[in-house]
């Protein structure tokens, strides 16, 4: 029995029970199976915040349909390098999952991933021209080779009937479709990965335990908090802070210089969800459009097929929301508590430079139910409000970063923050996060354990066939990995 002053000793302590911590612990167990791993989660179960299935869109973000990864430049051309990069990163995650399934570390793939067509859909002459340029720039790449393009409403009706039912036949429309797309239940995947490590005795987990302080000591880090059974204290040689929106505050409390200058702005979102049989049966795809003018990239509208706990549903959103909380189950004072002297000016600069974004968010917060219905009807003209319910998605914290010569910059995407000595790391930011977890956690390994990477390479190559490879220079290997993971995850058989 542990005494009140008991101190748990770990090689690695992971704060937060989400997909990032689960992925990092899984990789570490592959390369150092004797290391003692510990998870600390403030809620009573893992994957209840951003990794929860209803707290994200479940899109396997591969840039097959997400237009925010391929912006149109002032000269009219379309920049697709980010789209290719995101696709390659998701392929790394697919390889890791395939390896874990093949070796019995994950259960049957249908418990967490489903083949789902990814469709980009636009209307209006300018948007049609943009989508055609995007298609022309991407479909020659091996990872986008299966992409189809059409401006024919009849073909679009075959792909996704709800998009064309009741639509003005004179309206110019266009769509691309990729059958390589997926829907991922990141909550189930996270729980599988963590519980497998815990059940096999390869890791310990402390649920219902909130970390309050992270301080250096002579041997690494001393982490303190409060749990259901009283005080919690642990020591660890390495700490990973994968606590979603709370990661910023915990990194600040650690005192590492590398966290200075970072701030955060909380963004919440709402979705409309339906399980109406006539809607669910008619729409089996993830359809992404273009973000409204002035909207942040993460607010791209999408009409999504979801499969959670074996039950299908369709979601539409996101509708912007606001809460000062940094977690869905966080404190109303999270935003205020994150303000420091070193990030105050960058945060104010971002506010002044992004007045259009602030105006957009305010207008969205004030949007009536009828206005929200009209936004849905732009994608599904026949939608009826009575078929849908509103659900609040997970809380995100957009990174505010101090950039030399520019001051505060609002940064979209994810940011890995590591101490100079590599003894602590944390993850800030949002989408495409979960989908690219394997790539991001490999970056953590490379930055925090550079002296071990050479010894770890054989194990990492076994788990991820293209590890260490520049896929842009070896597109044939990327295509081969895509085909192999499609087969290993049973996606082709279930398409």
UniProtKB/TrEMBL annotation:
Pathway: Carbohydrate metabolism; tricarboxylic acid cycle; oxaloacetate from (S)-malate (quinone route): step 1/1. It is an enzyme of class 1 (oxidoreductase). It catalyses: (S)-malate + a quinone = a quinol + oxaloacetate. SUPFAM superfamilies: FAD/NAD(P)-binding domain. Keywords: FAD, Flavoprotein, Oxidoreductase, Tricarboxylic acid cycle. Its cofactor is FAD. Belongs to the MQO family. This is Probable malate:quinone oxidoreductase. The gene is mqo1.
């Amino acid at each position: 029995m542990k005494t009140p002053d008991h101190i748990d000793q770990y090689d690695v302590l992971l704060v937060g029970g989400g997909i990032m911590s689960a992925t990092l612990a899984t990789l570490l167990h592959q390369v150092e199976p004797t290391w003692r791993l510990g998870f600390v989660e403030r809620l009573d179960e893992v994957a209840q915040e951003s990794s929860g299935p209803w707290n994200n869109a479940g899109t396997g973000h591969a840039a097959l349909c997400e237009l925010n990864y391929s912006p149109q430049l002032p000269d009219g051309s379309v920049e697709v390098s980010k789209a290719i990069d995101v696709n390659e990163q998701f392929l790394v995650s697919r390889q890791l999952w395939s390896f874990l399934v093949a070796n019995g570390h994950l259960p049957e793939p249908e418990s967490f991933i489903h083949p789902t067509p990814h469709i980009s859909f636009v209307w209006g002459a300018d948007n049609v021209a943009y989508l055609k340029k995007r298609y022309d720039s991407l479909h020659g790449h091996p990872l986008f080779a299966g992409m189809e393009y059409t401006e024919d409403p009849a073909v679009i009706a075959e792909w996704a009937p709800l998009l064309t039912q009741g639509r003005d036949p004179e309206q110019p429309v266009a769509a691309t479709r990729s059958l390589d797309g997926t829907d991922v239940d990141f909550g189930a995947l996270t729980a599988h990965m963590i519980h497998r490590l815990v059940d096999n005795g390869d890791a310990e987990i402390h649920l219902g335990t909130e970390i309050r302080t992270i301080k250096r000591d002579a041997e690494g880090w001393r982490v303190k908090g409060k749990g259901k059974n009283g005080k919690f204290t642990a020591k660890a040689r390495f700490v990973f802070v994968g606590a979603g929106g709370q990661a910023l505050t915990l990194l600040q409390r650690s005192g590492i210089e590398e966290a200075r200058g970072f701030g955060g702005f909380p963004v919440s979102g709402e979705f409309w969800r339906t399980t109406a049989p006539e809607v669910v049966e008619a729409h089996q795809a993830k359809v992404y459009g273009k973000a409204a003018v002035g909207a942040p990239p993460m607010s791209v509208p999408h009409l999504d097929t979801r499969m959670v706990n074996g039950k299908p549903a369709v979601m539409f959103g996101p509708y912007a929301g606001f809460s000062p909380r940094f977690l869905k189950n966080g404190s109303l004072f999270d935003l205020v508590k994150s303000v420091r002297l070193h990030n105050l000016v960058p945060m104010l600069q971002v506010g002044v430079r992004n007045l259009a974004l602030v105006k957009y968010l305010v207008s969205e917060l004030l949007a009536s139910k009828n206005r929200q219905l009209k936004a849905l009807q732009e994608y599904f003209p026949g939608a009826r409000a009575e078929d849908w319910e509103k659900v609040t998605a997970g809380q995100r914290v957009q990174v505010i970063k101090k950039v030399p010569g520019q001051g505060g910059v609002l940064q979209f995407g994810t940011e890995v923050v590591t101490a100079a000595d590599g003894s602590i790391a944390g993850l800030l930011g949002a989408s495409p996060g979960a989908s690219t977890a394997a790539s991001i956690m490999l970056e953590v390994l490379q930055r925090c354990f550079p002296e071990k990477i050479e010894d770890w390479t054989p194990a990492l190559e076994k788990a991820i066939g293209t590890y260490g490879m520049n896929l842009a220079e070896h597109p044939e290997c990327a295509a081969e990995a895509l085909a192999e993971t499609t087969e290993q995850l049973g996606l082709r058989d279930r398409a």
